[in-house]
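Figure 2 data, in text form.
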Amino acid sequence: MFNTLDDLPPEQRVLVRLDLNSPIEDGVVQDNRRFERHAETVSDLAEAGHRVVLMAHQGRPGDDDFVSLEGHAAILADHAGVDVGFVDSTFGDPAIEAIRDLGAGEVLLLENTRMTDDELPEKEPAEHADSAFVSTLAPEFDAYVNDAYSAGHRAHASLVGFPLVLPAYAGRVMVSEYEANSAIATREFEGDVTMVVGGTKATDVISVMNAIGDKVDTFCLGGIAGELFLRAAGHPVGRDVGDMALFDDQWEKNHETIEALLEERGDGIELAADLAYEDEAGDRAEVRVEAIDEKDRPYLDVGSETIAVYEPTIRESDAVFVKGALGLFEDERFSTGTVGVLEAIADTDCFSVVGGGDTSRAIEMYGLSEDDFSHVSIAGGAYIRALTGEPLVAVELLKTE
């Protein structure tokens, strides 16, 4: 499927694309799972004696998180166990000079790719291959490694231009993410397949449900999508209240699809039996869905009765895929749904994929171990596209068959 790092000839000059896009607080990049994951690719290349030059992006022009990658180099070095140099140039003379000065086993991080005008426009790969960015850097290298699966749906120069002009290889993250995230479309499971669906981006997860419904035996719903499905089932929820504007617009865009899914796959869609909210004393309270006459407050999690129904379904599954949190898990009062599902998965020996940065954060926050899951994805939009079977342009360019 891919040529990997194990296929690289010795002593190569290697250009590597990572995805180090991370939260920025007060102008300072924050450590996260992406650095840890990409460190394996970086350290493997350095230990093999290659000359390693890294590219990555951070934010977009005009946004608060559009900053230099200088701070990223230090964090990556800590995780990889190798020195990571930095040059504040992407493909200018300082970058070229620093690249040519590299010795075997040394690592250099170039400046934010999105600080060059050639990077961001969505173009055909052949157009990007002809850009000054690609045509200037490519002659300095023997090979290109793409490890940025989570950006694989972007037709940006650093992702799709270099594979046309250099021998292309998949990094460790690219291989593991591809295999896990495409499993629902490519693997056959002996038992039931369950998908836990939540989060705030209901439009995304509803498109996944519509695309792969025939591959999933049971959907367990929470989050915004869960309330929208309850609304379609005739309950007075799934509507905006107060300052919250998450439901009505997504309902208008998706209600026909939701209604069709309930009609066609109703037996395979488990809806919340109860919901949790903040009471007047600031505590968690729960109410059965059937007892709700009108929505007069935000609901911030599924209830305990709901989790008691979802857990046996998960424990009896051969495979479980998670996309989105079932509640506002960052607030411990409303973590019951998300953590309950993750604990149930962790207690089984099923094949499991937890996707999306927000949901995967709950694993660390609540003391669970990544080792109890088959794969914890660092991809967001790319994970959605993989689940729906949509090709990822930068990934497709790496394939050898």
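Caption note: The longest strand covers residues 13-17.
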